[in-house]
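From the methods appendix. Each design record in this collection lists the tokenized structure first, followed by the designed amino acid sequence. Records were kept in a plain field format so they could be parsed without special tools. The example shown here is representative of the layout used throughout.

RECORD:
FOLD TOKENS (150 positions):
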């Protein structure tokens, strides 16, 4: 393998490991509010403004089918509701109910504690650098994928 292949593989394996680690943290934070990490992820996507399922999927980088399944579970549990979408006749908007907003709020204190612990361990400047670099990596991968599609 070339040095660049080793770098790509190293980045991918690290990001896969980070994904698992962040999912574990999210599960721990969400559980006391009666949510899973996936439920929290979908609720978090619509907490500020309702979105169609496809919009949530794009924002979260997951499949539309996965979001639909989770949104249906959340709707059955009274955490979200489907609303008419003025921009599209068939694609309903997913919106949080007061119960869903309250569940996300219950996660807030533990989320703040963990954020403080992580930023203390890394240092605020390094934490900001990590955030910036991960966003840059994601944007670069998106641009490369767009090149391949176009």
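DESIGN:
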């Amino acid at each position: 393998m070339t040095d660049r292949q080793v770098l790509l593989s190293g980045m991918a394996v690290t990001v896969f490991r980070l994904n698992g680690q962040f999912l574990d943290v999210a599960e721990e934070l969400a559980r006391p509010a009666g949510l899973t990490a996936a439920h929290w992820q979908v609720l978090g996507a619509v907490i500020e403004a309702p979105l169609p399922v496809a919009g949530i999927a794009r924002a979260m980088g997951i499949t539309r089918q996965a979001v639909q399944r989770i949104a249906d579970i959340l709707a059955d549990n009274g955490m979200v509701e489907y609303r008419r979408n003025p921009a599209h006749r068939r694609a309903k908007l997913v919106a949080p109910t007061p119960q869903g907003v309250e569940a996300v709020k219950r996660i807030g204190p533990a989320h703040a504690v963990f954020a403080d612990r992580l930023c203390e361990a890394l240092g605020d400047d390094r934490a900001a650098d990590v955030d910036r670099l991960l966003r840059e990596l994601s944007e670069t991968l998106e641009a490369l994928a767009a090149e391949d599609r176009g």
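APPENDIX NOTE: The chain has one domain: 3-149.
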